[in-house]
Amino acid sequence: MKLLDTNHARNTFLAGLFAVIPLAVTGYLIYLVEANTAEITRQVFGRYVPLVGAIIVLMLVYLLGMIVRSVFGKWILRTIDRIITRIPVLKELYNAWKQISFTPGGGEGIYAKVVLIPAGGAQRTKLLGFTSGVVCAPGSTMLPVFVPNVPNPILGRIYFVDQADVVETPLSTDEAFKILLSSANYVPYEITQQMPAVR
After folding, report:
1. Are residues 48 and 126 in the same domain?
2. Of the candidates 100, 123, 147, which is a domain's last residue?
């Protein structure tokens, strides 16, 4: 019972930590931009205008998202990728990070592909998961699939599934996370169309 409580406390703490890190980083960025734009707003408007920094941060993040999703942005990311993988010390660290990183819209890491796998022995019941699409070892047909918990997708289980039983979906990683975070209150058209075809 004590071990169970310890695991629960650790998992809950880690879930809270993963939730607070992006919020803390975003808040700090807004604070920095707000502090640096305070004088500019005084000069332009004659007085301090609050939340200008927050608006600038949101616009910059949106602009960055547009660039990353564009053809030019993807070319830049591929170029940076090639450069980093040629640097001796950084190469190993970068490759290790790519294996575990969450890259929405990208093709690296465990979140590269959204798939459906059988739930235990039941072929008609499927679990939603993520996979890199890379087999466990040369000559193997087993794929590692991460099946997240709901509504906390940070935690989950790793299954090793034969490629023949893995059904790749047309969903993006972002869409899959919407399903998980909404506890399936949001289910996109693509998944509902594919489910009847799954055998």
Report:
1. no
2. 100
Q: Which residues pair with 126 in a beta bridge?
A: 118
Residues 31-48 have pLDDT tens digits of 887 788 777 778 877 887
Select from 191, 154, 156, 197 the least CA-distant residue to 170: 191
Range of the domain at 152: 113-197
The model's pLDDT over 47-90, given as tens digits with 9 standing for 90+, comes to 877 877 778 777 887 888 788 777 787 788 788 878 877 887 77
**Using CB atoms within 10 A of its CB, is residue 116 exposed (0-12), middle (13-18) or buried (19+)?**
buried
Q: In angstroms, how far is CA 183 from the centroid of its own chain? A: 17
User: Can you give the length of the chain in residues?
Assistant: 199
How many domains does the chain divide into? 2
Interatomic CA distance for residues 79 and 47, integer angstroms: 44
